[in-house]
Amino acid sequence: MVTAIARRYLAALRNPSRAARLATALWIAWAVIVWNVVFDHVIVVAGRHYLNAADLAAQGSGAYARIDDWTGPAVTHALWIATAAGAAVLAIGLVSVRLAARARVVRSVRL
Question: Which residue has the higher pLDDT, 71 or 10?
Fold first, then answer.
């Protein structure tokens, strides 16, 4: 019974429109994941830079380091970088799905 359900599900994915929708959904999910990872990485790097500056300030070789002076610009920078990375992944994915769907239609017309 389970194998019959699995076969029916896999057979439904052979439908080009369903496969294209699934591929599009997976590319959108991938773009969201990339956005989150890049945003988090930029914030973590800014936090490390702040800790370094605070350590230098505590040793007396610099001005007092406030975290707001480091995280404010880092959030703006992270938003821009993460959005660019996510948009690039999304654009590549959607164009790829469109080209693959078009190639499949052309191939089926030739047969």
Answer: 71
pLDDT at residue 46, rounded to an integer: 93
11, part of any domain: no
Q: Is residue 100 part of a domain?
A: yes
Count of CB atoms within 10 A of residue 44's CB?
A: 12
Please count the residues of the chain: 111
Give yes or no for a contact between 85 and 23, defined as CB atoms under 8 angstroms apart: no
With beta carbons less than 8 A apart as the criterion, state whether 90 and 27 touch. yes
Q: Is residue 25 part of a domain?
A: yes
DSSP 65: P
- pLDDT reported for residue 28: 97
Domain limits for position 73: 16-110
Q: Model-level pTM?
A: 0.78
Query: Rounded to an integer, what distance in angstroms lies between the CA atom of residue 107 and that of residue 23?
Result: 19
Task: Indicate the number of domains in the chain.
Answer: 1
Q: Is residue 10 part of a domain?
A: no
